[in-house]
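In this supplementary section we document a worked example of the pipeline. Step one takes a protein sequence of length 414 as its only input; no multiple sequence alignment statistics are reported here. Step two produces a three-dimensional model, which step three serialises into structure tokens for compact storage. The input and output of this example are shown verbatim.
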Amino acid sequence: MSGNDDGGANATAARQLRTGEFIPLVALLFSLVALAIDAMLPALPAIGRDLGVVRPNDVQYVIIAVFLGLGIGQVFFGPLSDRIGRKPAIYVGLGVFMAGCLVSVWAPTFEVMIAARVLQGIGVAAPRIVTVALVRDQYGGRPMARIMSFAMAVFILVPAAAPALGLAVMRLAGWRAIFVAFFLIAAVACAWLLVRQPETLPRGRRRSLSPRVLGRTVREILGTRVAIGYTVAAGFAFSPFVAYLSSAPQMFEEGYAVGDLFVFWFAVLALVIGLASIVNGRLVMRYGMRRLSTIAAGAVALASAAGWVGLVPFDGLFPFWLFMAYFMFIFVCVGMLFANLNALAMEPLGHVAGVGAAVVASLATLISVPLGGAVGQSFDGTLYAQVGAFAIFGAGMLAAIRWAERSRAPRAGG
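The serialised model returned by step three reads:
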């Protein structure tokens, strides 16, 4: 159940947003992460030129820095939301994000830009992580997975459109104006949350931020094998995706010279993930999160192992039609994995949803950033590293899922 700012659960139940409005609000709050990342992709070459970047692969840090900030910010905002409430914690994060956007607008050097991007990642961690706790306050198990799947489906329209938005803004006013757009969109999200969404954590359920209490809660979470196993699986799922996002402009341009059509082909693949999330939202109610996650992880590992071998006759670079077919298949699986693995990790943590969401998301991010960043930095004009990463981390997902499930007997609920 949710609660209002004064702790009145019954009052909040009467005021709870309809699903038809709650899902778009959740999707918008999630989408700030996608905007901060995907809208910048067409601008990476221009940022590199204007700020004096020497190594082409170094522009990937404009993307990786946001993920690093996410890993840091999620540790802070989850516990903060357990102490002061979900909405106030999101307000703080949006303020930090908007400040980082302003620094980026006037960044004179690449180093300042990277620092500002880390700041944006720290700030956007609040809507990203606290929104998960906000959903968990009101839903659990398969209903939570269903809400998350449909929210992800709406949310995925944003990364599909974000590169085109970034390109359009850049053509009209330069790449720095993209950060002004970020600022304005964050302001809209803040106003919508303020006016329409009731607080979901009553005062009576808020927890102390004392080191002793926080340490005890974190130890409890780290000792929950199911939560940690699925968190590691989520980190493995996201690692090759971080590599894909950070190197996508180079992959499409250097490998296939698609030019401005990059935004179209990137959108096609993003929409595949959205479609998979919609399908998952329906399938999960029938087949369960565990079964779907296992099937999807196995499919990623097997298809990518075969794909890596299949790259050899093409000197490491598929024909474009085969490149798109491979990634479309992989992203169908990825769309199913993202919502399910996070919901499975959070399932035993409903009583500590804020700190639980922080630990789950931070650990998954801090696994994926160095691993995915290393894969992206190894880009050499071929697909060997990217396809190999999906194969290796797909196998890692299967191992982590199996390890998590050893702690309990199979049951019908998942």
